[in-house]
Request: fold
Amino acid sequence: MNSHVKIASGAADLSRRSFLVGSAATGLVLGYAAVPGLDRALAAPSNFEPSTWYSIAPDGIVTVTCGKADMGQHIASTMAQMVAEELGANWKDMRVQLASNDPKFNDPVLGAQITGGSWSTMMNFDAMSRAGAAGRIALTEAAASVMGVPAAELVVRDSVISHPKSKKSMSFADIVKSGKATKTFTPDELKAIKLKTPDQYTLIGVSVPQLDIPSKTNGTAKYGIDVMLPGMVYGRVVTPPVRFGATVKSVDDSAAKKVPGFIKTVVLDDKTGSTSGWVVAVASTYAGAKKAADALKIAYDNGPNAKLSSESLLSEAKRLQALDDSGQFFVKDGDTAAAFGTAAKVMEAEYTTNINIHAPLEPMNAVAEFKGDILHIYSGNQFATRTGQIAAAVAGIDPKYVVMHQMWLGGGFGRRLDADMMIPAVQAAKAVGKPVKIIYSRENDMTMDYSRPLTYQKVKAGLDADGKLIALNHDVVSAWPTARWGIPDFLTPSVDKKGPLDSFTVNGADFFYTVPNHQVRAIKNEMAHNATPSGQLRSVAPGWTFWAVESMIDELAHASGKDPALFRIELLDGKGKNDGGAQRLRNTLLAAMGLAGYGTGKLPEGEGMGVACVSSQERASASWTACVAHVAVAPSGEVKVKKLTVATDVGMQVHPDNIRAQVEGAALWGLSLAMYEKATLKDGGIEQTNFDTYTPLRMSQMPEVAVNVIANGDKPTGVGEPAVTVIAPALGNAIFNACGARLRALPITADAVRAAMKA
Amino acid sequence: MPNLTINGRNMSVEAAGDTPLLWVIREQLQMTGTKFGCGAGLCGACTIHLNGEAVRSCQTSVSEAVGKKITTIEGLSAKGDHPLQKAWITEQVPQCGYCQSGQIMQAAALLSRNSNPTRDEVVAHMDGNLCRCMTYSRIQKAIMRAASEMRTASNAGTERRST
Reply:
């Protein structure tokens, strides 16, 4: 039950900062004072340097600076939309730019630059809205003074401020050019601004054209891989056969030296522990660097993980789970041991998921350049704050001398929270004294992914004589992706006070069903943690915890002779701590059932429907999401997904079309992970190296997806991830409904379905 | 030094004949709209046209391209207004956008010879192009919209000519 993390408490607290509107050479700049508590006297336009959240140029163009990584969720455009609504700007005048890693662009709630958790809209809505409103007030007062009319009689619409009585009007451009719009809002004044109510919205809730899309249809959008610097050379990474733990014994680059344009071989010295045993071949062109890399003869000590496989990680997980004193408790309600003693029926089941790879289509890359005292790095990254620190560490300089230039991300999915790509770029740039662009090969990218970890979950459940769920024990064994960061604030205290746990391995297990006796144990698989350093893959823990929970709930419903959907609705009674959330989840499930025609007719032989409902991402930031999956299963075990009906309650829709795009993409990700994506470890290395063996869903595998968005007017919640987590269990449950085969391992294969039919 | 004809311009490049065309286009000529995804012809991000046919530039050597007409996303239309590019905006297709140059180039090769494809023909033609954001349904819709616009335009053109 973690609440939101806060990395640098206080530093980003906007409630103590003034908001400044002032003139600069480039037009009007608007933003929060860089120093908390900066008072009016200090805020004279001549000497203020606010964190510029947006600016208005003399031609009326409004440019919003986005401190979030934009990986296709169009968050930059959404930030502009929130500002434009309160500012009263015409959408045609809006532009976006991406921020650097300067702390002044930190997230107002999180206190750092990090993009993930489907948090961005939710956490920035208030601050961006107030910033927009403050700008409108400053412009209005300036217009009033120029026109000589009372500010209260002015109307702001589409970048024009008009006075209906006198028919006078001024455009934002005119006001900026007048130089009159200068104002400082104290924290209290800012807080007192009355924001629009939803009935006054003209832009929020409207699917305005995304500002980044045109550049993504004509090749002009610049991603990290597209960065070109004068004098830049190229580095090709050579990675060892094991995922982690190797060291380089020797490098013979005599053959590489014969490659035209070859510059140098660099063996990485990485004290951050991000990489192990990596070598970079540097040459004047990328093709040359590849040839040189291919010509290197490297001898490795493959280290302590060289004999490990997926099988060994799984058996270690089972060993740990069987120990009474393993792990720490994330949930400990009631007394499950006593309740199992009184239960009429006790069921146990094991659920597993395999290793999964992010594989964004833009392979990892970075450009590093030392220029004077400053290390410039160019990349698309989700965690600029930590990434800048890691780049500084491997360069041996203070992090304040690192400037990270944010680029568009060719897919993130959590992969670009990490900083490994900075290490070869920085050390190669240092070694050759020139800017170096590193581009991972797809093989580097896949075998060195911070993968979704292999997980093993054991669930034990007790039903009373009426078939009511009275006790549930849920053990989750995995590598700990977030613990790897070494940032204490990202960990969560355990309820049994056995030290912090990585809640990003158990989120979701703290569901909204009312179960009086409920325990969730987070167990770190140290062997997997060391051999397969794991990361945050789109939706993180709910991607596996709900696979276990929602499959088990189905198994329990069948054991008690109840319809699986109605069994869930009974458990979503909204009692105690579940009040509010449970009812929203119940309503969402009912919506999905209704839209899918669940239970309204008899399906043909071999077809089935299954349901699942989730409160992903975190309990504190849930988007209520339900799915009805409709499948046809052949006697061979081949599964055809006929339709996925997804309903999701997102509170408020800032951009309805974008929400649909995100939810549909997330649902197809869920399907891809459930049926098509599987990575395996052998001899310490990831076996899959490219898209021939690691096979995300393609167009021909896409089923009909019906997305239904519920917006009840509450604050906006995240939309990029929750639908990922609801698909696998809905599919597993649909397959059971179709043919009686119960699947407990992801991905689901035809062989596994056929085997389970016979069981 | 090989001579290449790219987007109607003659360009002399400094590269060995076996260099993948992709790297010459992207890093040497700095036309970065064509993307690197897999280096193995498995994802379609690097799709360009060679004499009007969609090919994977990571699997095409410079010497294979000599004497042929190379078209990249930058040269597909004069102002980014090919019917497919317009349809991509209308349908708001891209998410991260990284695969979309390749998707558009792949689709353009289909529509240039068949402006009335069925859904199955679209799927068969596009199945080699991965979209990790999974924007497939919008890609399909945009291709159908562009095809329809191209048919309308060509009918109108025919009518004008006949009068």
Remarks:
- Strands of chain B lie at 3-6, 9-12, 47-50, 53-56, 69-71.
- Helices of chain B lie at 21-28, 62-65, 83-90, 100-113, 119-126, 136-162.
- The radius of gyration of chain B is 16 Å.
- The mean pLDDT of chain B is 95.
